[in-house]
Design brief:
Length: about 450
């Protein structure tokens, strides 16, 4: 049994708050203790740029008015996959709120990934794990839109819900503390030093690594190439992206990275660093070009990097309306395509020679088969019970395999049906078999030669 320890951090260093308040300042009409702002109380709703960010923060702190935040029920998510299904959880449930028109999640205790799988006809075999931002205090779950955009491009996407620093269960107390810390970040943005940089909580990094391993372990069922698993994030999600990308163990490390903002305290890049895509806004009030500082480090290490610098856009890509940042997603996909990451996968785990062994009522037999898979459909030949080559056909979907062939036995036309599960490596199948229409059942295993 695996046990998730409670978070190690009980207080947050100055540099821990990133996306949250900047997003609020950019769009929110603020309130006073839950009451709407009035005409004589100025509303903070201008775009957040380097010139006005400190002034906007000052308005929040001086007036004591915070952006609207409303508790909401946790949405049903039957597709979510637990990173630690056997974990023993000893903590209150996570909190969900509507924050400035979008859903956020706080105090996560059960980390998950949610698959956004492409239409099989468009699937490229590439996969990207999406890490939401939120300063490691909350997760902006609007990033589900990015995951869906990736799926629409034929890329399997996985929205990561990772563990965070504990915050007050009271929404107003949470926002008040967050804005205070954000003001200190903005005030120090021109004198940044590694000592004041964002620090990734150990449990968040562990969750990111577990997500990479999980996607690769289930690559067959999700029809992705385990050597084309990427990781992308903005703000705190970008910080987490770089840290997991520099993991020393290859099994924990994504194959490529995408960062859209965030100050990452990296001074040296190892030779194994994955290819990196950067999208940076130069008027970011929190980080300015700090994210862009990764580009020369990647180049110095001789590692592939592509960087896009946008004049206007504030903090927290994706795409600030009315600016050229709306192009970043197309640029990211074009970069993936240029690197060959979006080449349509030939993922066909059933293609090859197999030995299929069945056992029906103690009557056991092994039959060689030659199969060819094109997307989900399977066809080929099998040595039937009487040693004749017979056509066999079926399908494979999400690692569920169905195969069948027809044969003659003592003047009767029969159909042998195999229904089983393909292992993660794509090298064996196990399940049950049935002779129709007789209804006689048994078990079978198949192994790839």
């Amino acid at each position: 049994m695996y046990s998730i320890a409670k978070p190690l951090f009980r207080t947050a260093p100055i540099g821990l708050v990133v996306l949250a308040a900047a997003f609020a300042i950019r769009f929110a009409a603020t309130t006073v203790r839950g009451q709407p702002a009035t005409d004589d109380q100025p509303v903070i709703n201008q775009p957040t740029t380097g010139e006005n960010a400190t002034e906007q923060l000052g308005q929040v702190l001086h007036s004591g008015r915070l952006p609207p935040i409303t508790p909401i029920p946790a949405p049903a998510n039957p597709d979510a996959v637990l990173l630690y299904p056997d974990a023993m959880i000893e903590a209150p449930d996570e909190q969900w709120e509507n924050y400035v028109g979008g859903p956020i999640c706080r105090n996560v205790v059960r980390p998950t990934i949610t698959p956004f799988l492409p239409d099989p006809a468009k699937a490229t075999g590439a996969a990207v794990i999406v890490a939401p931002g939120g300063g490691f205090w909350y997760l902006g779950m609007d990033d589900a839109k990015i995951a869906q955009q990736l799926a629409d491009r034929g890329i399997a996407a996985f929205l990561l819900k990772y563990r965070l620093l504990p915050t007050s269960r009271n929404p107003q107390e949470f926002l008040s503390k967050m804005f205070q810390d954000l003001a200190e970040i903005a005030a120090k943005r021109d004198s940044r030093s590694p000592a004041s940089a964002i620090k990734v909580p150990e449990f968040a990094l562990a969750d990111a690594r577990a997500a990479v391993r999980l996607v690769r372990s289930r690559a067959t069922g999700w029809h992705v190439d385990p050597q084309r698993v990427g990781f992308i994030g903005g703000s705190a999600g970008a910080v987490l992206t770089v840290q997991v990308g520099l993991s020393p163990e290859a099994a924990d490390r994504p194959d490529f990275l995408g960062c859209t903002s965030g100050f990452v305290p990296v001074t040296e890049v190892p030779s194994y660093a994955p290819p990196l895509f950067l999208a940076v806004t130069l008027d970011d009030p929190l980080f300015s070009a700090d994210t862009g500082a990764l580009m020369p480090l990647w180049r110095k290490a001789g590692r592939p990097v592509e960087a896009h610098f946008y004049e206007i856009g504030g903090h927290g890509l994706p795409s600030t309306p009315g600016t050229s940042t709306s192009m970043w997603f197309d640029s990211f996909c074009a970069w993936m395509n240029t690197r060959g990451l979006m080449a349509v996968s030939d993922a066909a785990p059933l293609t090859g020679n197999w030995i299929i062994e069945y056992d029906i009522g103690g009557n056991a037999k092994a039959m060689p088969a030659s199969l060819k898979q094109e997307r989900g459909k399977v066809a080929g030949t099998i040595k039937g019970p009487e040693g004749k080559d017979l056509p066999i056909a079926g399908k494979e979907e999400d690692a569920k395999v169905t195969l069948q062939f027809e044969y003659e036995y003592e003047g009767n036309s029969l159909t042998m049906v195999y229904i089983g599960t393909l292992n993660a490596a794509g090298t064996s199948i196990s399940g049950y078999c049935e002779v129709r229409p007789m209804g006689v059942e048994g078990t079978f295993t198949a192994r790839k030669k």
